[in-house]
Each structure stands twice: as C-alpha cells, then as structure tokens.
C-alpha cells in the first residue's frame, strides 16, 4: 500500500510542470540573470522585471547578450528586463532570441544603438519606449508582431527602417506602417518635420502613433481615414489645429490629450464620430470646435462632443483646413 502511494505521488510530481529557476551568467564582462524556460529544450530568457522601474537586470555601457548562457539557449528577453537602465548605451541581441518583451528597454535614456537580429518575431509594447537617445530602429524581416508604442516617445528617433523582406510591416519615409500601409503604426518622435501628410492608403491611425511628436505643427488626415485610436496624438504640443475629414467615424480615448498648443478641431462629418469615454482633449474650454452648420445641434447633444464650450457651425462656402464638409 505504501509503495503504491509513493509511486502515485512520484507520477503526480512528474506530471507537474518544472518550476522556473533563475541563474546568473557572465559574458563579455556583463553579468545577467536568466530564467530557465524549458529544461528539456535547454532554453532560457533574460530575467523579466516586475514592473517599471524594477528591472530584472541592472547594466550599463555596451551590452552583448550571449546566444548561450551556461547550457541554455537565450530565446527571449523578458518584460521590463532592462527598464530604467539609464547608463546602458548599446545592445546587441543574438540570433537565438525570438521575442523582446513589453517594456524590455523602457526608459533606457542613454541607449543610442540596438541591433535586432533576423530571428526576432515579436516586439512587445513600449519595448523601446522613452529611449531618448536612440536615433534609428531597424526592423528585420522576421518580425511579425509589434506592440503599441514599441518605439514611442523616443525624442531623437528620426527613422524607423523595415527590411524589404518583411511581409508584415513597411517603412515609408521613415514612418512605420503595416504592410498594406492601411494602418499608421508609429511616426518617429524625433523626425524633424513640421508638416506631415498621411498617405491616402491609411484607414486607421494606431494607438500612440504620433505620441510626443513635438516638431509637428500640422498633420493632414486624408478622407480615407475612418478611425483614430486611443492616445494617437497625445503630447503633440506643436499642433494648433486639426481637421477631421468626413470619413472619420470613430475616435479613441484621449486621442488629442495633452496637446497644449491645440486651439481648434474642425470636424467635417455631418454625423458626429463616435468617441470613447474619457474624452478627446484635456481642456474643452481652450479648444474651439468647428462643424457643418446643420450638424451643430447633433454635436451639442453627442457624447463627448457636447463638452466643448464653443461649437461653431460652418457655412456652405467655408473651407477649413483645406477641406469642405459634404
């Protein structure tokens, strides 16, 4: 009976997944902590942090992550793995890595260079957010998934390049789009252009797409755009006026929040676009809203739009922002 119980207990323990364990390994003078992912496959990830600013590793200078740590292949970089490592200046990621976690290098303000290999398939949200010294990002052909604001709020980021072999994303004039150029994913915060015309192929402006783009004073949104996502233009302090074409049907949460130079929004749609709860701007008393004259009452009674203190009707022959309402 006792033997049977012991055998049963052993079988149960063997059936349980092995507990992850951490270990340290030193390579090229840098000691990192790793978490074993699979003992049988001999894989590990650079240890994740718990949240910002509590990284899994504290490093500085030039970092070369090894392909093999001890006897384990390094296949991923965990969430918050290097967040807030302000004295980290460059990172070389090995060909064994397939994923870079959310906020993995968040707020690495001293980072000026990163090499992403052609093995990486996913880059998490905010992975390189607030890397204020990073001038260039090159996305290899292997990347299939990029999280929201993966390269957002990078003050010196002028160009995002995408390898021509990538079937999922493309770069147009240094701006990141999906492969069909229907979604504008990321406009580099450090791109020194005051005026930008969104391509006519775009139907959606992604979350945080223009976040912290303070050089911009004017963005032309084409009639192809139907949706503007959450926080799309947050902290674009150079914008003074925005014209929403009559094609726009939905606007996300805080799409133009903290645009402190914004004084007017011109919405050309007769039917007020649907807005997410939480609002469009942070101070409705400081932004005038211009709409078609026959739609004034509709905007005054619509959710969110009704918060604007000053709603002005456009006459038939008036043109705002180079566009007329239909």
Features:
disordered N terminus; mainly beta; 6% helix
Describe, in plain words, how this protein is organized in 3D.
The protein has 326 residues and is mainly β. Helix content is 6%, strand content 29%. The chain contains two helices and 26 strands. It has helices at 2-15, 296-301, and strands at 22-27, 30-38, 43-46, 61-64, 68-69, 72-77, 88-92, 99-100, 113-115, 122-123, 136-139, 145-146, 159-162, 169-172, 175-178, 183-186, 195-197, 204-205, 218-220, 227-228, 241-244, 250-251, 264-267, 274-275, 288-292, 311-314. The strands form six sheets. Strands 1, 2, 3, 5, 6, 8, 10 and 12 form an eight-stranded mixed sheet that branches. Strands 14-15-16-18-20-22-24 form a seven-stranded mixed sheet, with no helix packed on it. A hairpin with a 4-residue loop joins strand 15 (175-178) and strand 16 (183-186). The longest helix has 14 residues, at 2-15. It is elongated, with a radius of gyration of 24 Å. The termini are far apart. Residues 1-18 and 322-326 have low confidence and may be disordered.
